[in-house]
Queue: 2 jobs
Job 1
Amino acid sequence: MKYKIIGLTTTALVLLAVTLVSLIIPEDNGTRYIEHIIAEEKTDCESHTNNAFCTHLPIVMIDTQGVSIPGRPIYDENHVKIGHILAEDNSEVITAKIKTFDNENHNNHINDTPTLSSDIKIRYRGNSSRSFDKPNYYIRLINEDGTNNSQSFIGMDAHHEWTLHGPFLDKSLIRNYMWYNIAGEIMEYAPNVRFCEVYVNEQYQGLYLAVETITAGKEGARLNIELNKKDNSFSGYIIKLDKGDTYNLQNIMPFTNYALRTHMQHEIVYPGEKNITHELHKAIKDDFSFFEKTLYSYDFDNPKYGYENFIDVNSFVDYFLINELTSNYDAGWMSTYMYKDIDGKYKMCVWDFNSACDFYQDSVMDSNHFEMQNCLWYVMLIKDEAFVDRIIQRYWELRETVFSEEYLYKFIDETVAYLDDAIDRNYSVWGYTFNPQYDMLSPINRNPRTYEDSISQIKNFLHTRLSWTDKNIETLRQYSSSSKIKKFNENAN
Ligand SMILES: [Zn+2]
């Protein structure tokens, strides 16, 4: 009987969702630029006589004058990573030149007038992706004298730091684009992104996604957090949970490290090397540790002293749901970003959906379970029934908007249509990765053999995942149980 009621409720909600979805989701929310929705449609060029490269997407051209880009991983004889290849002068970056071509109304060609032309510092970036044939790049725009050259980059707000992400394992090419944009629709901030096609030293490299790095910026660009330069003892900051930075002053050891709750490192991403001081390092460590100790205390859910005084609960709820819906299980333990302004509360920022939506490569990950409740901070939050309530309520809210199948399928189909012939151009270079010897997933039948397979994989995953979550979201309540002094229901004995 209970199942029937749940079934009926679900059907009613799905029907409601279908009816409401077009009303609730605006085509353009006025703030976030979602490329496939907002980019101007371009008229086809007259045919090019000389086979000139012609694309509706922005072009990014990097010229290193033949110098190798540093940052590939170095392994010892046991295949353990022991470092990265450095530049000839032992630095992590080399100087190179960049040009972008981003015409608003007509297609882009490498002989057009560049939209941006600048010197850059460049290296490979990422963890495992540093060894991929199609690597990711970290880029810092600089002036001739080496100072930062803050510029708009293919339409995104001006800054000097950028990432070029080359989807490689992700054969659909759209995972990060999709989930950064969807997160950006519902959370305060998610990195802005633009598709582009990349050349390095005149060699075509295929489709890339230009991504904002997660850092503070001026005049509304990126995260609005303040570096307090007058008083060097405190600042807004960004923390990343991952493998740690090579520069020691960037790594802190807060409560969850010294209490051995995690073996991952807490890395201060902002302020960076130029602005971090011993005083700031200590102040941030103490501040963050104070929050973590509160979270792990008996009073963790006390309205006066507890976690709600430290975190933006909505941000933690949305981060939980997006990573849970996509089974993006590095989140909460690696590539995990949290930020706060001087007087603000902690907020989460999404990053890295390469393994999301049935693409976890190293093991068979059964998506019919919840995982985020086991992560460092959520392991405590989930003990509070009020937090679980908010997760469940928010899930059903989002099911009517950005988590509705109608919205998600439309998003996918329209993105693929927008990419159009750039997909074929990308796979004219990287098409060999569909061959079985490049399979990354087990069992073998999970590996897409065509681009169409890779799109079906995401849709099938989302369909299964959503219907499983609809039926099981209530089971999250089992992580927060009543005790003698704490009851779910005040009237209960
Ligand atoms: Zn053209």
Job 2
Amino acid sequence: MPIAVASERLIDRVIEGERISPADALELYRLPLEELGALADHRRKLALTEAYDGSGNDVVTYIIDRNINYTNICNVYCKFCAFYRTEKDSDSYVITHEEIDQKLDELTAAGGIQILMQGGHHPSLTIDWYIDLLSHIREKYPHVNIHGFSPPEFNHFAEVFKMPLEEVIRLFKQAGLGSIPGGGGEILVDSVRNRIAPLKANSDEWLKVMEIAHNMGLNSSATMMFGHVETLEDRIEHLGRLRAQQDETGGFTAFICWTFQPDNTKLRAEPVGSAEYLRMQALSRIFLDNITNVQSSWVTQGPKIGQVALRYGANDFGSVMMEENVVSKAGTSFRLESQEIETLIREAGYTPRRRNNWYQLVD
Ligand code: SF4
């Protein structure tokens, strides 16, 4: 890791809350880790000062939700994915309403208010199947926000249903979809996407779904999965595209980044460590000056680094996540109960508060 001193002028600009350029980001990236972390912590404070009646700098939020992967059947074969199966695999599945009900009953009993519902690109499920599923959940569990279907899934739906994208998103919203996760963003640079997921939505298509959704009043999160075949410049280009989209439509509620988890995947890449994770999260907090919330990724980094990440730009501890099927298939399986999350937040010097998808406090 080359260590250099960023110009004093640049550091002053970061402290003053000014927007940084890609060239500035490259310069900041080379700062000693703890200096970059301190700048990100400062920017977190600037972003959150007004939040929660002025207590935003003392608060770290989290949500109780549950991952539901409605099918693992997928014909996209991303090289970094250990989750997908083909229809012929004996452990392939499509979820039933009974299974959904059981998961939602458990979620409700645990005080949960949201599901993160994503799946493989199933080649033949019809629009009626999805609308039935959404309507069923909306009717039976009105207290649960359906945070579902990543942009590449929407692109896939438009193709399979032979419908304009806008129409698919509109019908899903009408049936109960509440917000959209930023999954499938990986790195929004097509030369990278072509190497790791050549059959998946490209960068423009990913952003187009977000643009349509935001303009329809559906908020979403923004993500970055790094530490595979991309360069540092690619990561910064990715952040630049998210920031430009947010300038236009303003619908991203939060940003979350995580490192590629290699086990059981076809992609051979040396895993990047926690220092690199913290460095990129800190840089992202500074670069993404128009996205208020940054989630720490304890699911991939483990609880302790998740906790340290709260001093590297993050103001949110993500979710209790009662069920996780994707990262765990790639060899990483950390689990935390809400009490443990609250203890980790308190130990880091903050007050834990429960939130909903829109970062409103619910406790
Ligand atoms: S990441 Fe998603 S789209 Fe890619 S293979 Fe896995 S399930 Fe399919």
